[in-house]
Amino acid sequence: MAVITYRDALNRALREEMARDDRVFLLGEEVGEYDGAYKVSKGLLDEFGEWRVRDTPIAENGFAGLGVGAAMAGLRPIVEFMTWNFALLAYDAIVNSAAKMYFMSGGQYNVPIVFRGPGGSALQLSAQHSQVPDPWYANIPGLKVCSPATPADALGLLKSAIRDDDPVVFIEGELLYNVKGEVPDGEHLVPIGVADVKREGADVTIVTHGKMVHVALQAADRLAKELEVEAEVLHLRSLRPLDTG
User: Fold this and answer.
1) pTM across the whole model
2) What is the dihedral of CA 141, 192, 106, 59, to 10 degrees?
3) Band of residue 190 on the pLDDT scale cut at 50, 70, 90
4) Residues designated as active site
5) Interatomic CA distance for residues 95 and 86, integer angstroms
6) Are strands 196-199 and 204-208 parallel, antiparallel or unpaired?
7) Which terminus in the chain has less CB density within 10 A, N or C?
8) 63-122: per-residue pLDDT in tens?
9) Parallel, antiparallel, or unpaired for β 53-55 and 24-28?
């Protein structure tokens, strides 16, 4: 086991999957020369070159649509949004193209694409960078939606998302990039659609995802200490599909 940050776990997932499959490529604003707004793509341009790490103009609907077309043509693009707020400009490409193409084509076209980036509240980034888009996309048929809370979940879920044959919306907690945690050595995959019990408890269950997992764990500890109530904390990890087992 290694202890690494959430950011480094995402970077490792990108690096491992790009090395494993030459159809995988990354595109988005400042993902290359600048290493990404949150440095998630650090070092990837030097390792894989400009054909597979593509800086784009500030035109979210344009490069999201480019990614959808590349996926339909057999590649496995990863589209990074600087923040999920800006992905509103790409809503048409995500919802009307990526999510619906398999159904509209009668099963002729899969769209193996990952849309990823930071979402939710953040420090000193104002209302226009702090939207929580998770429930919007979780209500769209054809999309899978992931919201990891820990470095291990971030690594395993992103690798699974990249390998998935359907479009995946991957929402990273904007306040989680520096969070550290244990990550298994070697290959590590987390299945999409499988929740994880982060804390055992028999009195009440708190169901949550993303950064709120950490808040829920703190609340559960207080409940136990102050009220002798043992709360189970269930991390969904995936919002679509939900784990109903």
Assistant:
1) 0.95
2) 70
3) very high
4) 60, 129
5) 15
6) unpaired
7) C
8) 999 999 999 999 999 999 999 999 999 999 999 999 999 999 999 999 999 999 999 877
9) parallel
